[in-house]
Design brief:
1383 residues, alpha+beta, nine-stranded antiparallel β-sheet, disordered N terminus, disordered C terminus
Length: 1383
């Protein structure tokens, strides 16, 4: 027959394997291949497989290899067979090996590893290569010798072609990964399942049922292929007495059943475990029997460390000997009860194991076979708690007996339990392995690799990563990922190899080799592989060192990853910032922050991910910054070395784009939950130096972030450090200097940031679309910032029209904010008063060159509003609040004067002043202002006694106009001297005034109280009053009202105006004005002059004071109660001082008392009265003002001032002796001022009434006379006598004049009541009483004489009118007579 058939040998000695050797196999394969058949086909496979299994091939019945030589024959035939036949044969071999561990052992003895490598080299099919690799995995996973592993490594090292990987090297490396992951025991008992194949234990005298016992082992079950064994119940263990009492466990299919017999001839208790045991897989089986006294006993079953059964059970209570103890079978030893499979080390503990210990046992793995005495016995990574549970001594002392396949001497299985443990056996503790039970000892891949040299044998393969693949056209694999995965898996499987990698710094070498390969080797799979291993290292206690090397040399190695694809780099750093960082936080024993460090990350940014050098790596840069942010926000905040690294980066990197993100990161950290700790570290590292450097950058975004950083630092700094920054460092002066050097106009965002610093409410958000909404709960914490904001707004601006509009809006916004805050909280007023130059910056904000008329008006109005708010607070809450008024008006005068000077004169004056201030010492700034105001402060003094000499007033009016009136007898002789107008009082040179801006680096210490510091302008005559004429002036006194020499000049002889500087075409910027407005010599600083803004402010403040008094008058309490109230003590004192300052000024502004009385006396000629009244108007200084030239405005000031004097002075409720003493007045000085106001108001009223009545009288008289003449002419023409009508009209004229005189009552009822209030009260000096009395008598006399003259002049006018009327009547009469006669 042409078909080839093979007959099985009939005798045992005539087996095929016994006949064939290597040469015979080769000849046989050649013979088969040279047969005359057309070619090998499927008909060849059947006979070969029958030879292999010793009968018909059937996977359900015959899977055991009977003839190993046939396997060698198949290997000889495979290269010559077609690919489909090769695949079929390889698949069949794999199935046979999977189905039976004996088959694997048989093939392993044939040394098939080298043959598989040969087939792998010559095959070109990837499918066949995968089957070959699977075959290798099964063989090496079972056991591998050092020689075979060396052959595998040699296959990878060498190649037939230079610079080329051997065929299917990548597949082999992946297979090696699976070899390293193989978790099967290297020592185990193999139960063949044949009859009687079991281990018998010697008798035990007593079974440990108190408190219980535990059974633990690793098992692997194989399915029997005998179809006749339908009731197959293989026994795992059988521990019973001769009577059948005890414990057992058997398998039914894949289910484990536990049986417990507690009584003879009773049905045992059965418990089925709800777990399916799959064939050909290893499981750790642990059964725990626990005896309880107060409740039912329990049985537990654990599979792979997890509990799968818990049931109540009744344990046997017997003292009988347990002489029926077996492993793998029952006493009957029937084929249905014999176990087919494998068991690793077998332990029985005389104690109930806890779930924690069972989990630790499972973690030890199937290869452990010792008795839990030493920690070094295991190569598995364990936690400290697990080591304590396993090797603490309790587990070792509870081992009842233990058997493993390595402790076997022939058929004798030695007991490996600790010798110190008490034995429970009757005789010898050693067991007997019956026929069919084999002890198998294998060598694992990890053990063979350790013998070969360890993990270091893999490192040379990394130098071959750039080698070409022999079959790259068919498929491509990432060799770098496969090699690194193999290396990591070896380290994961063995602590010995892990320590080897640490000691030899293998990852540093790997990183070095990876840097030299092509970028294609750096793939996303490689990144995933690295982080997977890193997470494993974080979970083990001894992985910190290797993890640190991994982070340093692989993960955070910029030289390695910078050449990779951008997506790979982003994946790398994103994984660190998200998943990996979270894993680090979950592991409390390890900190990625300590392993990597912020300094290394910033170095990576600076060197490899700069925006200018690698703009395409923005995503990578953001990911790195995210890692830094998470580092610094972890725990208690930034550490010193981290803060130092961040600040060094900010100071050394010149590119704004690179600095911005790091600065933003630092800013976010200061606003985080640990912001206080970050700010503290920021201060310790002198971080403000870096912030100041950043302020000078041209980028507005960078400047804003730096401002936010400075503001938050001040907000969260300690009180002592904040005081140091303000006093010793001058932080705001430096901020101003840096912002000015940047030269950027103040935008809305910068304004908001500066305002946040002002109120100490920093925010991480940059708002550039709108102004911040004002929170009235804010408090001005850093008033110095107002000066900085003002100077920045004034200097950093452009000439564009749209910018001027926004600049005006910004100024209004700032003024509005500050005014609203001051209205809401008194603390804000106090803070503002601490700013020594607050009036100056208000004036600067109110003066915007190029602004529209409406904007300028609004700005000035808001400045006045702010002044009023501060004055209101000072008058109500401060003892010397009146001094603030003096400062304010003096500052207004100085600002307007200096602003009008050309720039060259300003600079020259400033340089001269600096030279003088350096050599003149420390003169009080009060003297500067006082001397500059001397001439004006003295002018009002003469006017207060303008009517003290009757002869002067009642005499020649020309003399009264040209000569000053004599002073009161109590005045010093020096007070009557008139100063030389051509040479104003010289100014005393001194240091720069604190009124001006002075942002030096040294800073200034702010006073504790707003008015505690002697103010530089407190002595200036802001009101222009100068002080009362009856004061005794001492030039050495520090009183602000008495710093000026009391040289008085009659205001009628010299109007209160002075020379002003002409404005230039180009208005200089306000902050180009010298820092001290009073630094000019006496030939450059004009005397004080009331300006429009002065008068508006005076009127508004008088209106404010008057409104307070009206509230008092309208309240249920009496006026005396309000004035005497303790809460109003500052208000009444400051108001009294204020009246003492402005009363005589208001008199002077209304023309002066003497001048007005003189005009009233000259107005006897009624025809010229109107013209003389207009002359009075032109004498006062208000005529020169643009908006205050009306007499009505002046009269309103007089009316308000008189109302205050009537309430505070003339009412007698206020004790004025203290005020007069402080102002160096004689007793009664305040009363005399009030009298002057009263008399001036009365005289002006009479003068204005006289003018009005004169106009009305003339008009009425002309109307009556015209009517009389017309009537006479008409009646005379008709020939009618009209004497009665003429008499009637004449009586009407006389009645009209009488009405005029009656309407001009000299003193009204209200005036008389006020004059009665002037009468001095008890307790005043005789001198004061005499002065007031003389003043009243003199005034009454003058007014009476003036009224007498008016009456006389009125009679003369009546006679003139009467004579004229008579002549006209006679002419009419003659005409009537002539006409009548003719008729």
């Amino acid at each position: 027959k042409h078909e080839m058939s093979w007959s099985l040998p009939t005798s045992p000695g005539a087996t095929l394997s016994g006949r064939l050797n290597a040469d015979n196999i080769k000849q046989l394969s050649s013979l088969i291949l040279r047969s005359d058949r057309p070619g090998p086909n499927n008909a060849l496979i059947g006979p070969i497989l029958e030879l292999l299994v010793g009968g018909p091939y059937d996977l359900r019945q015959r899977v055991t290899i009977k003839e190993p030589a046939v396997v060698l024959l198949i290997f000889e035939l495979l290269p010559s067979l077609p690919e489909d036949l090769q695949l079929e044969l390889w698949s069949t071999l794999e199935v046979l090996l999977h189905r039976s561990l004996w088959n694997i052992h048989t093939c392993q003895s044939l040394q098939l590893v080298e043959k598989c490598l040969e087939h792998l080299k010559i095959t070109k099919s990837k499918k066949v290569a995968n089957h070959v690799a699977s075959m290798l995995e099964i063989l090496v996973g079972y056991s591998v010798s050092v020689k075979e592993l060396k052959a595998i490594m040699t296959y990878l090292y060498t190649s037939e072609q230079p610079m080329t990987w051997s065929s299917h090297s990548s597949t082999l490396i992946r297979t090696m990964i699976n070899m390293a992951m193989n978790k099967q025991p290297d020592v185990f008992f193999n139960f063949s399942g044949s009859l009687g194949a079991a281990i018998t234990l010697p008798p035990l005298s007593k079974w440990p049922t108190h408190p219980g016992f535990s059974f633990s082992t690793w098992i692997r079950m194989e399915k029997p292929f005998d179809s006749q064994r339908d009731y197959y119940k293989p026994v795992v263990y059988w521990f019973r007495t001769g009577k059948g009492l005890g414990f057992s466990a058997h398998l039914i299919g894949g289910t484990l059943v536990l049986e417990t017999t507690n009584k003879t001839h009773k049905k045992p208790q059965t418990h089925a475990v709800e777990f399916i045991f799959q064939s050909y897989q290893w499981y750790m089986l642990t059964v725990v029997y626990s005896r309880n006294h107060l409740r039912s006993s329990e049985v537990f079953c654990f599979v792979n460390g997890s509990q799968v059964l818990r049931a109540d059970v009744t344990l046997p209570n017997t003292d009988s000997v347990f002489d029926k103890c077996f492993l793998g079978t029952s006493p009957a030893a029937t084929p249905d009860s014999t176990f087919l499979g494998q068991m690793a080390a077998i332990y029985v503990f005389s104690d109930t194991l806890s779930p924690e210990r069972i989990k630790a046992l499972y973690k030890l793995g199937p290869c452990y076979k010792n008795h839990f005495s030493l920690k070094a016995e295991s190569d598995v990574v364990l936690t400290a708690q697990e080591k304590k549970l396993l090797f603490g001594g309790h587990l070792s002392s509870s081992v009842l007996f233990s058997y493993n396949a390595k402790a076997v001497d022939g058929q004798l299985c030695l007991d490996t339990s600790p010798l110190e443990n008490q034995s429970s056996f009757v005789h010898s503790p050693h067991a007997t392995a019956l026929e069919g039970v084999d002890s198998v000892v294998t060598t694992s891949f990890i053990s063979a690799l350790h013998s070969l040299g360890g993990a270091q044998v893999l490192l040379p393969l990394f130098s071959q990563l750039d080698y070409a693949h022999a079959n790259a056209k068919e498929y491509g694999d990432n060799m770098s990922t496969n090699l690194l995965s193999l290396l990591f898996e070896i380290a994961r499987s063995s602590t010995i190899h892990l320590q080897q990698l640490v000691q030899m710094k293998a990852l540093q070498l790997v990183s070095y080799l990876l840097e030299k390969v092509s970028p294609s080797c750096l793939s996303s799979e490689l990144v995933s592989c690295i982080f997977e291993f890193a997470r494993h290292l974080m979970e083990i206690p001894n992985g910190k060192e290797l993890l640190q090397q991994l982070m340093e040399h692989l993960v955070f190695c910029p030289g390695l990853w910078v050449k990779a694809n951008v997506k790979v780099q982003i994946q790398l750093y994103d994984s660190i910032a998200t998943e990996f960082f979270t894993s680090c936080l979950d592991n409390s024993g390890l900190s990625l922050r300590e392993l990597v460090g912020v300094a290394q990350l910033l170095y990576i940014l600076q060197e490899h991910y700069s925006v200018t050098t690698a703009s395409a790596l923005t995503g990578v840069r953001s990911s790195v910054l995210l890692i830094v942010e998470k580092f610094v926000s972890q725990g208690e905040g930034i550490k010193p070395d981290e803060m130092e690294a961040i600040l060094n980066y900010l100071c050394t990197v010149p590119e704004e784009e690179n600095v911005s993100e790091v600065l933003c990161l630092l800013l976010e950290c200061t606003f985080s939950d640990v912001g206080s700790a970050v700010v503290k570290m920021f201060e310790e590292q002198n971080g403000l130096n870096a912030a100041m450097k950043l302020l000078a950058f041209c980028s507005e975004e960078l400047t804003l972030k730096a401002l936010k950083l400075v503001g938050n630092t001040l907000h969260k700094s300690s009180t002592s450090h904040r005081q140091h920054l303000l006093e010793n460092v001058g932080i705001f002066a430096v901020v101003k200097e840096k912002l000015l050097s940047a030269g950027q106009p103040v935008s809305m965002a910068m304004f908001n940031s500066l305002f946040e610093i002002l109120v100490d409410c920093p925010s991480p958000v940059i708002t550039d679309s709108h102004y911040l909404p004002l929170d009235l709960s804010h408090v001005i914490v850093f008033p110095e910032m107002l000066a900085v904001m003002t100077e920045l707004i004034s200097l950093l601006h452009t000439s564009l029209s749209d910018w001027v509009e926004s600049d005006a809006m910004m100024r209004m916004q700032l003024l509005s904010y500050v005014a609203s805050l001051c209205v809401q909280h008194q603390a804000n007023c106090k803070a503002l008063l601490q700013l020594k130059e607050w009036q100056h910056w208000c004036l600067v904000l109110g003066d915007l060159p190029g602004a529209s008329e409406e904007d300028s008006s609004n700005l000035q109005e808001m400045v006045r509003r702010l002044f009023l708010v501060i004055l209101s607070y000072c008058f109500k809450e401060e003892s010397d609040g009146w001094r603030v008024w003096v400062e304010t008006v003096a500052m207004q005068h100085a600002y307007s004067v200096v602003k009008g000077m050309p720039d060259d004169q300003v600079q020259k004056a400033e340089s001269q002043f600096l030279d003088q201030s350096t050599s003149s010492g420390t003169n009080s700034a009060v003297d500067l202002l006082s001397e500059s105001q001397t001439s004006f402060l003295g002018e009002a003094g003469k006017d207060r006694e303008a009517v003290s000499n009757p002869e002067t007033t009642c005499g020649d009016t020309r003399t009264a106009e040209s000569k000053p009136c004599s002073n009161d007898t109590n005045n010093d002789s020096s007070d009557s001297a008139e100063p030389n107008r051509s040479s104003p009082s010289p100014l005393v040179a001194g240091p720069p005034s604190p009124l001006a801006f002075d942002f030096d680096r040294g800073g200034r210490k702010l006073p504790e109280s707003p008015l505690a510091v002697k103010r530089s302008c407190s002595g200036g005559g802001g009101s222009g009053s100068g002080g009362p004429s009856d004061s005794k002036v001492s030039s050495e006194n520090n009183s602000p009202l008495l710093q000026a020499k009391s040289k008085t000049v009659d205001p009628l002889d010299r109007p209160i105006v002075s020379k002003t500087f002409s404005r230039q075409d180009s208005v200089p910027s306000p902050f180009l004005i010298p820092r001290n407005p009073f630094l000019f010599s006496n030939d450059r600083m004009p005397n004080f002059v009331w300006s429009t803004e002065h008068l508006k402010l005076l009127e508004d403040f008088l209106e404010l004071l008057h409104s307070w008094l009206q509230k008092w008058e309208s309240s249920p309490k009496t006026l005396e109660d309000h004035i005497g109230d303790e809460s109003n003590r500052f208000l009444r004192s400051n108001t009294a001082h204020f009246l003492g300052l402005v009363s005589d000024t208001v008199v002077a502004l209304n023309g002066g008392l003497k001048s007005v009385i003189g005009k009233f006396c000259k107005s006897a000629d009624l025809n010229k009265m109107h013209e003389d009244s207009m002359a009075v108007k032109r004498t006062h200084s208000l005529e020169r003002q643009s908006t205050c030239s009306s007499l009505r405005h002046c009269r309103r000031l007089l009316e308000l001032c008189l109302g205050l004097s009537r309430t505070m002075v003339l009412s007698g409720y206020l004790k004025l002796a203290i005020v007069e003493s402080r102002m160096k007045m004689d007793a009664g000085g305040m009363h005399r001022q009030a009298v002057r106001l009263l008399l001036l108001a009365s005289t002006l009223k009479c003068l204005e009434a006289c003018e009005e009545d004169q106009k009305n009288f003339h008009k009425e008289r002309r109307d009556i006379e015209t009517l009389r003449l017309e009537c006479s002419t008409v009646l005379g023409g008709l020939g009618i006598k009209h004497s009665s009508l003429n008499n009637y009209l004449q009586q009407c004229c006389e009645r009209s004049k009488e009405l005029l005189f009656e309407s001009q009552c000299l003193f009204s009822h209200e005036l008389m009541q006020l004059l009665k209030m002037v009468v001095p009260r008890e307790g005043e000096s005789k001198q004061s009483i005499q002065q007031v009395a003389n003043l009243l008598v003199y005034y009454l006399a003058v007014m009476c004489v003036a009224q007498y003259y008016r009456i006389l002049e009125g009679v003369g006018w009546e006679d003139e009118v009467s004579s004229s009327t008579t002549a006209q009547e006679s002419d009419v009469g003659r005409k009537e007579e002539g006409g009548g006669g003719g008729g």
